Amino acid sequence: MGSLKVCVLFLSLCAGVLSCDLTSSPEVVLQRTDLAAYITNKKATINPQYRLLYHVAPPVGWMNDPNGFAYFKGEYHLFYQFYPYNSSLGGPTGMHWGHSSSANLVDWTEHPTALIPGKEQIFSGSGIEISGTLVLMYTGHINAPEHSGLADTEAQYLAFSNDGIVFNKYKNNPVIAKSPNGSPDFRDPKVWKYGDYYYVVLGSKTEEGYGRVLLYRSEDMATWTFLNTIGQPSSRMGYMWECPDFFQLGNKFILLMSPQGLAPEGDRYKNLYQTGYIIGDFSYQTNQFVEQVPFQEIDYGHDFYATQTTERDGKRYLIAWFGMWNTTFPEAADGWAGAMTIFRELTLSGNRILMKPVSTITSLRESSAFNGNLAQNAFIELNKTGEINLSGDLSQAIDLDIKGAEGGDIRIRWNATTKIVSVDRDDAGERNIRQGPWTPVGSTSWRIFLDASSMELFCGEGEVVFSSRVYPTGQWVITNLSAQTLTVSAYRLRKSV
Ligand SMILES: *[C@@H]1O[C@H](CO)[C@@H](O)[C@H](O)[C@H]1NC(C)=O
Ligand SMILES: *[C@@H]1O[C@H](CO)[C@@H](O)[C@H](O)[C@H]1NC(C)=O
Ligand SMILES: *[C@@H]1O[C@H](CO)[C@@H](O)[C@H](O)[C@H]1NC(C)=O
Ligand SMILES: *[C@@H]1O[C@H](CO)[C@@H](O)[C@H](O)[C@H]1NC(C)=O
Ligand SMILES: *[C@@H]1O[C@H](CO)[C@@H](O)[C@H](O)[C@H]1NC(C)=O
Ligand SMILES: *[C@@H]1O[C@H](CO)[C@@H](O)[C@H](O)[C@H]1NC(C)=O
């Protein structure tokens, strides 16, 4: 099939929808206007104490998974699971897609809510630019009638926009109505193009109730053929694989996903759910993925889930929900809850993905807060935001206390004997530790990003990363508790959201 024909097929699909755009129903227009007014009014009542200054977060209400991360007409577009009416996840009442965009992955502009639920809730999905149209593919989740004993249903839907702001749903939704084995868990489509075809991976389940990923192909985005499964389901790999992503990195293929139901193993899998990746080889001729390196977590922090990536100019960028399903979000009492991590760039190094902050993030540096040797019990004061670049002698321990001047702290340590980095958070008097082994492949410094209620630690070239929400009272204070001199440069960061 030639690419011309693909294009024509797509345009004929799209043309029908675009004619719909012109006649958006008065109900939908009213819904959009009412919701925008609600958000504006509610926003004015938000308590800003924990409001993040350079992380994307919902204007009001609840946020979880990133969605539709794609480049379109000169900007990166980021959508997200959004429930405007309740910051405590209002339950099964109607997930929306919130929307922001950015030219540089650092400065973000908020847009009107992109998708409002109808009969179906708008669960997670992805985005792709096709011939000047931003096409979103999402899971339409329909709740079974209460007390019916029936399972909820999930199917895959499309929506379109020509301007990247106003989206309309495809009139012939859904485009994939059912999973091949009838499993009602069938969600989070991640779409990409290769050669003349569109491909999509979806999270689902085997008959035994193990997580698996399904691969489909289409010529026109409307008619999809199931090709194969990607990855090997097993009892050890959990009961559901959410938010799959599948892409080439270096000369390997990466299956990135968020499995649910992994049993804790020592320092691994301590969060309720995980996010990680399997490295292997894949052939578009046979559609076979051959696993080579088993599942590894991509981030060791307390609050990290449901990643999404997009590729541009040969670079692979990642974003994740800076949250976890069973944690409490203190900011919920302030009228909002949940956030995105900072954006990261991925590269492959041997058997591990390196994850670094995007290079443009240095544009956040507003002023220098410290530059030199951090002396005994010396501290750095940072107000609400900071970037700290720190290095020490890795043959000795490093111990750093990061706390709010009036409470709330997180401790970062390097154990030179075990070669383990740990991030130890005070959760209402209980120490809550995450840790992982670190073998530097290049740089031996740490980069720490602090925002009004978050901490992200990148070790070396991004071999080991921790993302954790933390809620300080008062400004950030960083204290050297190590028995060695640390070389530190620290910056105050500006607001970018
Ligand atoms: C928000 O959700 C919580 C938990 O589901 C519920 O207790 C509360 O009443 C809801 N608030 C509003 C304003 O709907
Ligand atoms: C969340 O789940 C993890 C892993 O099961 C558990 O260790 C932790 O105690 C849970 N947290 C809460 C607040 O329930
Ligand atoms: C950090 O503090 C330790 C003792 O707490 C001290 O021995 C060390 O010299 C300090 N680091 C620097 C850079 O001075
Ligand atoms: C801290 O930041 C707030 C606004 O974000 C500003 O009003 C205040 O002056 C800053 N404090 C210091 C000590 O810089
Ligand atoms: C961090 O500091 C080291 C020197 O200690 C320097 O080589 C490196 O470029 C700095 N990294 C960043 C991102 O500023
Ligand atoms: C490093 O880890 C070992 C083994 O858990 C422990 O005995 C030792 O006290 C740790 N060192 C520091 C400085 O915490």
From TrEMBL:
<protein>
    <recommendedName>
        <fullName>Sucrose-6-phosphate hydrolase</fullName>
        <ecNumber>3.2.1.26</ecNumber>
    </recommendedName>
</protein>
<dbReference type="InterPro" id="IPR013148">
    <property type="entry name" value="Glyco_hydro_32_N"/>
</dbReference>
<dbReference type="GO" id="GO:0005737">
    <property type="term" value="C:cytoplasm"/>
</dbReference>
<keyword id="KW-0732">Signal</keyword>
<dbReference type="InterPro" id="IPR018053">
    <property type="entry name" value="Glyco_hydro_32_AS"/>
</dbReference>
<dbReference type="InterPro" id="IPR013320">
    <property type="entry name" value="ConA-like_dom_sf"/>
</dbReference>
<dbReference type="GO" id="GO:0004564">
    <property type="term" value="F:beta-fructofuranosidase activity"/>
</dbReference>
<keyword id="KW-0378">Hydrolase</keyword>
<dbReference type="Pfam" id="PF08244">
    <property type="entry name" value="Glyco_hydro_32C"/>
</dbReference>
<comment type="similarity">
    <text>Belongs to the glycosyl hydrolase 32 family.</text>
</comment>
<dbReference type="Pfam" id="PF00251">
    <property type="entry name" value="Glyco_hydro_32N"/>
</dbReference>
<dbReference type="InterPro" id="IPR023296">
    <property type="entry name" value="Glyco_hydro_beta-prop_sf"/>
</dbReference>
<dbReference type="InterPro" id="IPR001362">
    <property type="entry name" value="Glyco_hydro_32"/>
</dbReference>
<feature type="domain" description="Glycosyl hydrolase family 32 C-terminal">
    <location>
        <begin position="375"/>
        <end position="483"/>
    </location>
</feature>
<dbReference type="InterPro" id="IPR006232">
    <property type="entry name" value="Suc6P_hydrolase"/>
</dbReference>
<feature type="signal peptide">
    <location>
        <begin position="1"/>
        <end position="19"/>
    </location>
</feature>
<dbReference type="InterPro" id="IPR051214">
    <property type="entry name" value="GH32_Enzymes"/>
</dbReference>
<feature type="domain" description="Glycosyl hydrolase family 32 N-terminal">
    <location>
        <begin position="55"/>
        <end position="357"/>
    </location>
</feature>
<keyword id="KW-0326">Glycosidase</keyword>
<dbReference type="InterPro" id="IPR013189">
    <property type="entry name" value="Glyco_hydro_32_C"/>
</dbReference>
<dbReference type="GO" id="GO:0005975">
    <property type="term" value="P:carbohydrate metabolic process"/>
</dbReference>
